[in-house]
Design goal:
Length: 172
């Protein structure tokens, strides 16, 4: 009887260990979105306001932080500025250091030509992203290297709502 009890206990423990290793948990960062289609995003740097549109209707607004030198158009790599002008969402990073991120197609042809004419490195990797380790401890509102930073909860919404190819107009 005791031996049967031990076999039963060991078998149960093995099943628990196997199920713990194989259990699939849902990653809560990946939200679903079933609202109206997003057709454009407008970013107003001076107001730190992002508006997400479906047609002519603003369906969501967010406040954000910018690069550590927020005034003016991005001119070169490392200047701490956020670009201005028309861009498009062109990629997403589910493994971002900043929780989640969606990339804009900076640099575009005009950005590259301007940097070449000035003899500087144009830079790259401009994203709308969450907080990440730096953002959680930042004491300044504008702390990125030139990206647009929202909260982690907000980037989860944006990541779900805004498809690749969406135009993003960044105003001064």
């Amino acid at each position: 009887m005791r031996r049967d009890f031990l076999k039963l206990m060991l078998g149960g423990a093995s099943l628990l260990a196997i199920s713990a290793c194989s259990s699939s948990t849902t990653d809560t960062r990946f939200k679903s979105y079933s609202g109206p289609p997003v057709t454009r995003v407008n970013l107003f740097k001076s107001r730190r306001l992002m508006q997400v549109y479906s047609g002519s209707t603003v369906i969501k607004q967010y406040n954000f932080g910018l690069g550590f030198a927020p005034v003016g158009n991005k001119e070169y790599e490392g200047d701490g500025k956020t670009p201005e002008g028309l861009y498009y969402i062109d990629r997403r990073n589910p493994n971002s250091r900043y929780h989640l991120s969606v990339g804009i197609n900076y640099p575009n042809e005009a950005d590259i030509a301007r940097a070449l004419a000035q003899g500087v490195q144009v830079g790259s990797d401009i994203f709308i992203h969450g907080q990440g380790p730096e953002g959680r401890v930042a004491t300044e509102r504008d702390w990125t290297a030139g990206c647009i930073a929202v909260t982690d909860d907000e980037i989860e919404e944006i990541y779900a709502m805004v498809p690749d190819g969406t135009p993003v107009m960044i105003y001064p």
